[in-house]
Write a structure and sequence with these properties.
By secondary structure, the chain is of the alpha+beta class. It contains 5 helices and 6 strands; from the N terminus they run H-H-E-E-E-E-E-H-E-H-H.
Length: about 160
Amino acid sequence: MIPDERILTALRNSRLVENLRDFEVNILTSLFSFQYFEAKELVAELEDSLKDALMILVEGEVEVNAMVGNESVLLQLKSPGDLARIISFVGGNIVNITSSIKIKKDSAILLLQRSKLETLLLTHPSIVYCVMRNLIQHVHAVARRKNAENAEMSNYIYRIHGRY
């Protein structure tokens, strides 16, 4: 299966396929399922297609509201390549996570089931390694960005460092 340009753009923007060769990208994309959702649709998290699945936005706009433990987390997927359900994908059964997914605009989403990626462990372990490494780098980048935003907000509120 040769993926169309929208899917490749979303995968490149997500950085999920970084450091993978073209034939490895083709192997990986053969594992994805592709779903369309209509605007204002509320997607139940218990759907089999979402269980332990990584979501990658191809087009549209999606809002994911999750409860991680006792903390509410809101993710807005607006750009091709935006990721959601990373914790569930990498083994979220360790943490109690419930989520609701609202479709804001007609959307196309790629879903990658963890069990499908695991089928490559014996035949293509380098693909699994790269995907998991890229997910960790993505989460780390998000954490750094949020930390910088918190520091900026603290500087503003408490008028520290003379920039305000």
